[in-house]
């Protein structure tokens, strides 16, 4: 018996020893596989997260190589400074940036900057004139895109004759330092003072007693939450981050036209851009041609438009294809290139920027058509006269149940008493492009800013010989079905009476005297 007992113990010890050796071998193999195939495994994890409708880990992970060598190769070396990421901030490559701040300090800084109305580089480029082109740029937190927008602006001809006004709804020192480093034209910063950042626990931010977005009316009444009686037209309650965009746009326009001292007598054009736009080097030249053409051909055209959301402008080198497409009107051209794109069966998340014939040429075509929000809101341009007409209908703008500023303008356009809809004159070969694949409304798994930016750069490089046309020719279009479809109701998100009241009150702020603050 003792022998059998000892034999059993030895067998158990032997089995345990072999098991330990096997575990050690497996661990070594696993570590080696992780080292070798880390990228593939990470991709699988990301895909699993997306399949389960989870957000990818961070914006930084998706955008770990924002400024690629391909992008830098098409940027003049002297402008690389605007793309420089400071090593101390590992998240600087992310398209969106958030960091904890002291709210009281931010509010004081916002009040100080808005009160000062400082114009940087005014000593180098002279004061703002009544006809100076003002470029108003709405900025949130997408630093990567903002860098490239600034690079594109720096390369634009006659940019030194403009005033760039950066309108922020998020206070961030790295963004501020980037903007204040601009040395190619006059620059001003303004800060939306009612932001979610500066009001994190109260309206216009999210008050703890605000109704949950998807709460039913009966539930909201039981909760006695704020504005329970006023959900939007779809039965939802407000979300501060979405409401803020319309508030910011409306405040920015009011601020520029009605409150800044440098624009008190301004009668020139104001170009509306956003942080994720990219401009061609001749956009100011084209703007001048559009204005001249509108004055001669379409005095009733109130809005100019430099951009479009079409992503295929294919330049055909073969004469047969060129002749074929030159016989088509613009709508047919759009349909033709859309059909070609479908036939090529590109991934729906791949952007296909290409140059199209007849859009860029010595004599380029522009179109006069009814203004439509989703087609003509990028690179939109108008002056004080148009703003005055919009302001006359401010109550309609502020009461319309849609959190989008552009659809709210479309509502005004379609309901102007005794007047036609806004007319727009636009260039078919766009000079403003949308590069914002990542961020506020876009959360794609393959979200990489460099991919889109490099394609826009390549497009403009291909079209370089067609930029700066001597003249443009205008065609009048009644617009398609989408242009003329009457808005029945808005997209919602704007049923809260507090949003409507805040919007209306923004037009009542007096013009502020300019103060000078000298920075050491």
TrEMBL record:
Signal sequence annotation: 1-28
Keywords: Disulfide bond, Glycoprotein, Glycosyltransferase, Golgi apparatus, Manganese, Membrane, Metal-binding, Signal, Signal-anchor, Transferase, Transmembrane, Transmembrane helix
Record-listed E.C. numbers: 2.4.1.143
Membrane found in the keyword field: yes
Residues at which Mn(2+) binds: 276, 434
Single Gene Ontology BP annotation: oligosaccharide biosynthetic process
Cofactor(s), names only, from the UniProt record: Mn(2+)
Source organism (scientific name): Vanessa tameamea
Catalytic function, reaction form: an N(4)-{beta-D-GlcNAc-(1->2)-alpha-D-Man-(1->3)-[alpha-D-Man-(1->6)]-beta-D-Man-(1->4)-beta-D-GlcNAc-(1->4)-beta-D-GlcNAc}-L-asparaginyl-[protein] + UDP-N-acetyl-alpha-D-glucosamine = N(4)-{beta-D-GlcNAc-(1->2)-alpha-D-Man-(1->3)-[beta-D-GlcNAc-(1->2)-alpha-D-Man-(1->6)]-beta-D-Man-(1->4)-beta-D-GlcNAc-(1->4)-beta-D-GlcNAc}-L-asparaginyl-[protein] + UDP + H(+)
Taxonomic placement: Eukaryota, Metazoa, Ecdysozoa, Arthropoda, Hexapoda
Disulfide bonding pattern of the chain: 211-225, 298-301, 398-503, 438-447
Designated name of the protein: Alpha-1,6-mannosyl-glycoprotein 2-beta-N-acetylglucosaminyltransferase
């Amino acid at each position: 018996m003792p022998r059998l007992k000892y034999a059993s113990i030895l067998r158990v010890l032997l089995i345990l020893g072999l098991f330990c050796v096997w575990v050690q071998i497996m661990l070594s193999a696993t570590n080696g596989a992780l080292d070798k195939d880390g990228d593939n495994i990470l991709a699988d994890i990301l895909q699993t997260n997306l399949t389960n409708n989870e957000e990818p880990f961070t914006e930084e992970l998706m955008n770990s190589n924002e400024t690629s060598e391909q992008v830098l190769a098409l940027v003049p070396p002297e402008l690389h400074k605007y793309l420089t990421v400071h090593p101390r901030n590992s998240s600087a490559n992310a398209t969106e940036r958030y960091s904890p701040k002291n709210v009281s300090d931010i509010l004081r800084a916002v009040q100080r900057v808005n009160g000062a109305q400082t114009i940087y580089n005014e000593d180098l480029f002279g004061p703002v004139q009544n006809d100076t082109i003002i470029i108003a740029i709405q900025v949130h937190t997408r630093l990567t895109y903002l860098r490239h927008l600034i690079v594109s602006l720096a390369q634009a001809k006659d940019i030194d004759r403009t005033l760039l006004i950066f309108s922020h709804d998020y206070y961030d020192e790295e963004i501020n330092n980037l903007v204040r480093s601009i040395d190619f034209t006059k620059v001003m910063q303004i800060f939306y003072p009612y932001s979610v950042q500066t009001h994190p626990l109260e309206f216009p931010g999210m008050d703890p007693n605000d109704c949950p977005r998807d709460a039913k009316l009966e539930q909201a009444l039981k909760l006695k939450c704020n504005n329970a009686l006023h959900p939007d037209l779809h039965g939802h309650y407000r979300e501060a981050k979405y409401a803020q965009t319309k508030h910011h746009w409306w405040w920015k326009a009011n601020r520029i036209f009605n409150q800044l001292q440098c624009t008190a007598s301004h009668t020139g054009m104001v170009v509306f851009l956003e942080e994720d736009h990219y401009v061609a080097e001749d956009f100011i030249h084209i703007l001048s041609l559009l204005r001249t053409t509108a004055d001669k051909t379409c005095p009733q055209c109130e809005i100019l438009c430099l951009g479009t959301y079409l992503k295929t402008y294919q330049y055909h080198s073969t004469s047969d294809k060129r002749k074929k497409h030159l016989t088509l009107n613009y709508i047919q051209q759009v349909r033709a290139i859309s059909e070609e794109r479908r036939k090529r069966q590109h991934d729906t998340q791949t952007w296909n920027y290409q140059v199209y014939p007849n859009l860029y040429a010595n004599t380029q075509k522009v179109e006069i058509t009814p203004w439509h929000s989703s087609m003509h809101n990028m690179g939109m341009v108008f002056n004080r006269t148009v703003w005055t007409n919009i302001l006359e209908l401010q109550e309609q703008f502020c009461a319309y149940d849609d959190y989008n500023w552009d659809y709210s303008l479309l509502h005004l356009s379609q309901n102007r008493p005794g007047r036609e809809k806004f007319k727009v004159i636009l260039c078919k070969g766009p000079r403003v492009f949308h590069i914002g694949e990542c961020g506020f409304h876009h959360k794609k798994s393959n979200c990489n800013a460099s991919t889109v930016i490099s394609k826009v750069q390549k497009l403009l490089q291909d079209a370089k010989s067609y930029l700066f046309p001597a003249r443009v020719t205008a065609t009048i279009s009644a617009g398609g079905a989408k242009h003329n479809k009457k808005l029945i109701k808005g997209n919602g998100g704007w049923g809260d009476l507090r949003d409507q009241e805040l919007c209306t009150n923004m037009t009542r702020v007096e013009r502020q005297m300019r103060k000078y603050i000298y920075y050491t």
